[in-house]
Structure formats: structure tokens, C-alpha cells
Amino acid sequence: MSDLSQSSDARLDPDDDVLELIDEHDAHADEHAGAPWRVLIVDDDSDVHKATELAMQGLLIEGRKLEFLHASSAAQARELLAREPNLAVALLDVVMESEDAGLQLVRHMRADACHDATRIVLRTGQPGYAPEIETVRSLDINDYKTKSELTRTRLYTVLTAAIRSYKQICELQVGRRGVSRILQAANELSQIRTLPRFAECALEHLCGLFESPPAGLVCVQHRSDAVEQARIVGALGPFAELMGASLSLLDAGTSRDAIERSFGFGQPHIGNPLTLHFRLSNERSLVMHALLAREPDEAELPLLHTFSSTVAIGFDNVAMYGQLLDHAYNDQLLQLPNRNRFIELLEKHLQAPEGLSLALIDIDDFSDINDAFGHRFGDQVLQAVAARLTEQLGERAEMARISADTFGLMGPTERINAEGVSGVFTEPFNVAGERLQLSATTGLVNLADSSALGSELLLDAHIALKRAKLMHRGAAQYFSAEMGVDARERFKLLKGLRASFEARRLFVVYQPQVHLPTRKVVGAEALLRWRNEEGKFVPPDQFIPLAEQSGLIISIGEFVLRTACFQVARLRELGYLDFRMAVNISLAQFRHPQFIPTLQAAMRDSEVPGDALELEITESMAMEDVDMVLHVLADIRATGATVAIDDFGTGFSSLSQLRQLQVERLKIDRAFVQEAQSSAAGSTIAAMVVNLGRSLGMQVLAEGIETEEQAAQLVALGCHEGQGYLFARPMPGELLEGWMAQSSKPSA
Fold first, then answer.
1. What is the predicted pLDDT for the residue at 695?
2. E strands within 505-641?
3. With a threshold of 0.85, does the pTM exceed it?
4. What is the distance between the alpha carbons of residues 173 and 296, in angstroms, rounded to a whole number?
């Protein structure tokens, strides 16, 4: 056809026969070709748009289809360019709103970094308006044609040349960016001497090479170990909590299968996830496993090879440096960290101490064993104790030899506790053919309860150990700040709590909860407060633990539950029929045999239906004894009440256990809400909780929202509900009723 504005069926150029051969070849093209090349047509003649698209219909260039975008003016094109960054070619009419509208649009595109690779072909139906040669050169215009020149074949040729040029430019840009990132990675990695930090930094750069958020694992396996014993030495994103654990703790699935295959066959897997395999010089193999936003392109494979070579050298250097430090920081007899190294580990974990405990374990009468059987036998005793500690408590825990017969253990509180340590010494030890019954005295510290630094924390554990030795062989004692405080002070506080409870100086306040997208009030959380005889408020974190230790929490918990039920009954009388009251339940209440009858009585006496009440249990409570929890949850559901997991993300729940519980709501801990705005890691955790809740059909509520920015971020993540000072502070019942009258309209 002589002009693209003529009928698409016109055939005035014999070269169009060539297109028949192209069509025939393209009909057999790979069905799995890549994403279409995106071509922008800018022309004020609608026939040109139709004819161009029809002329190229069904044709492939470089094995890929064409996708056309349309603009009828330069102004409309500017709007489209602002939201469409990946354009291969732009076919521009020179003359539109004005004689140089097309050229002005070209200048706009070349000033925008998002379109510097886009190839530009100028077209005009008025040859007299052809741009000057200098203009074509300076504005990086790929071609200039009159519309009468662009037959079907010639248009195909022009587009092919332009797209090949675009492809080459993109590959060069990818290469430049990749080389720059690899150089930056090499520079940063060369400064790192510890394997965990090197592994995490290498993971960050590997993900960054493909413009993906950091998410992945680095595992090391000794040649003599089974694959599942491979140690996780680097963990980012959704795997962060597995740092230091064995591969066996990684849930079965795509990631674990890929890592095990890579160890087994000694080969990488290029795809998404991406798995790289390295052989280290110390009889160890290492696997890097990264979750990417996309699969690596073919053009990026040389960059990946260069990156892998750089990282392989770095891992070897770090391993050699580690060997030099081994004697300085490890006990050579037991191949465990020594006191110096253990203090470093303590300081590291004090950055996130929640849920961690420290145990100092002293073998009773060890000097007598040495005197009776000799030091060689004593060494074998230490080796046997270390092996059993590792077997029973060592998983996800740090262990060290602190002194001659004293071990340090640090890890999750549910494993590193008095019962766990005592269980290690229940059965006799087999040492050199002898059955030896041992015992150990233990001092324990909950890291979250101490403000001490690494060496000071170890001193706290020693104080607790000495206190335990005053009791009896095999005793265990937890350190607390109150150890140095006279016992009468604790008794005075407990006495004051009992007196205040009897005198009704304990009272309940309510913090509203809202539907985040609409800010509609959906309910409130009942919170306990204590004003003592002097009229001063005692913080809940001081008196609640005391109430739990003394057993007073059972009576106090019933008081809170009944008070909250009657308050929601009052609100229902005022017309707020959809109002939900949330009440915190302690572990002691949850376990008490009269808990369900107490709940039923409170609902019956207040005439509150079950769907107006929600009970909140902590994540650690939910995971402690799953069978017991499931039984109590079933009884709660029989009353019609719903259940929420409070402070979610601070415990150690598994996905399978959470699914089993079938609770109605997850509450994001306020710490993650604060971190979500200040760090990428915090934002990732908040997003994970929201996505997990939504995928399991649960509502998600965020606590501690204080700013509009936090609220907006949570809405963007898909969080359903929230509470915090942004919406309202906790308030007494009568103030809540007034606040509701101003904030909500009663339902009919």
C-alpha cells in the first residue's frame, strides 16, 4: 500500500510478497515467546492507527509479538508516557497540534530517563516538514519516513531495525548496571570477615542484581554431614527467623527442595527461586538460595557468572579467616565457643531479646569426678554432657563452654528453661563403659527482662547460679531485678494489689478499634488499670505479672470479663448492635477448669450474645499446648464468641499450627507497626502478617497506630482494622459512650 491511510487490503508494492514468507515462518514461531514489544503510535489520523496495527497483525519480530499503544496528539502521548515506562518504539507524526508537535514530543522523551532507550521513528504525510539532519542526530531519532514510503514490508523492516536497536541498548544498560552493582558488592564484601554477615550481604547484592527485595538463605554443609544438618548461616526476608538453625527446620516446599537438590548434585539452578552452589576449601559446600521478583534474563547470565566467581572467592577468604579465629574464640576440647565468643553472641542477640533465655549450667561435684577417675575421664564426661545438651537443647540455640565444668546456653525460652535443662540429666550418662548419674545446678536469665550488656548478663546468670546452689543439687534459679530488692517490698506490692482489688480501685478502660479504610468504629479492647491508695497509677507490666504469680489473676480476670460484658450490653442498649468487645485472657485463666463456666455465666448475666465478644490470647499461649488450646477454643466457639491472637509475630508459631487454630483475627504487635514505617524489615514483617491472615481467611488488626502515615501504610498493605492513639486513647465506659455518640451513628 502506498500510504498507511489507504485501505489495508491495497497491494501496490511487490515487496509485500516477502511478508507472505514472514507470515508463514511466524506461524510456526515458539508459542512461549517473551512479552510483546510495545509500540506507541502517535498520530492525529485515526486511519493511520488502524492501518498500522492491521498491517503488522500476526507478525513477530525477534520471536515476539507486537503490542500497540495509541495517542492521537502529543499532549495525549505525554500522559501515556508518564505511566508506560517500557516502550520499544514510538511511531510519531511530525505535524499534529502544531508544525513541530512531534519534535517537541521527541525532546520530552529524550529528557526522560525512562525512555532513553526507546527508538523513535518519525512519520509525516507532508514531506516539506522534514526535520533537519542535525535535529535527527541530536535527538537520537532512529528513522524518518514519509507515510507514502511505509508499505507493509518497509514498515516491518523499519520496526525490526528499531526493535533490534532497542534490544541491544537495553542489554547494554543491563550490563552497565550489573557491572556497577557487582563492583559495589565486591567492594563491600571485601570488608567483611564474619561468615553470617558476609552471607547476608552477598544475598542482598544477589537480589539487588535482579532488582528484587532481599529474601533468601545461605546454607553450609560439611562433607560428612547429612543434607538436613546443613547450617543456615545467612537468612533474609521471610527466612530471617531461621538464622543459625539447621536446614531441617525449613518447612518442606520449593525452597527446601531446591537447596537439597543443589547440595546433592553440586549444581546451581538458574530460575526463580535462584540457587547457586559453591565448594569451599575446608571440605564444606555452600548454597545461596534467593527468592527473586522475576527470572534472570538470558542477557543477565554473564553477570550472574561474574557475581558467582566474585562471591566464591569471598566465601573462601572468610572461611580461611574463620580458621584463624577458631583457636581464639573456641574451646578446642569440645569444639564449642568459649567465654569470649559467647559474650559476643549475647550482645548480638540483645538487639532482639524477646523470647530468648540464657542458662548457665554447672555440673555438680565435677572436681570429685576428676579426683576419682582422672582428668582424661573428666574430659570424656564433659564431651558426653556437651553431646546431650546439643541433642536435646542445642537446636536453634547457642552453646559455649564458659569455664572448666560450666556450660552456657542461649536460645528460645520454650527450650532453654529449668525443665529443659533438668531433662538433660534425667538419664545416666555412658562414659568409657561406665554408667554415671550426673546432676547440674542452673542459673537462668530471660534476656528481655535484663538491661545488662553481654558480660554483665553473664554476671546476672552467675548470681542466679549462686542462688540456686544455696538451694540443693540440681536446682534452677531465674535471675530477676528484684533479687536485690527486699522481699517485703514485693509482699507490700502484692498486699496493695489485693487491697485495691477488694476496694475496687482496679477498673477497666476501653480503647476503640476502627475499620481502617472507613474509620468506622467496630469495637474496643478492655484494658485493666490500677490506682493505688496514694492515687498513683501502677503500670500494668508491674502488677499483672505479680497477679499471675500469686494466682490473683483468676479473680481479676473474671472481674475484667464481667465488666466488659456489661459495658457492651450497655452499648447495645444505646443502639450499637454491631459493637465488638475484646478482652485479654491470661494463660492462668485459659488453663483454669472454671474458665468456660465463668465465660458462660458472664455472657448469660449480661445478656450479651457471643458475636459481641472476642477473647484475645497471646501467640505463645496458643502454641504452648496445642491439644489443650484446641479443646478450649472449641468450647469458646460453642458460646458464639470469637478469638484473636494478640501480639502476633512475637512468638514462634508455625503455619500449620496457626491454620489448626482457626482463629478469627490476628493482631499485629505495636512494635512491628512502629518498625514498618522506619525500616524495610519492619515493613516486610507487617506485610507478611497481613498476607498470612488474609490467606487464612482471618481479619488483621494493627495495634499502636499513632500517625496517619502508619495508618495509610497499613491500609496499603491490606490491613483490615486498627487501634491506637491516632483514633482514641483508652477511656472509661461513660466517656466511651459519649465518644461513640460523636463518632458513630447507632444501627437501626
1. 87
2. 506-515, 520-531, 537-538, 580-584, 613-618
3. no
4. 15
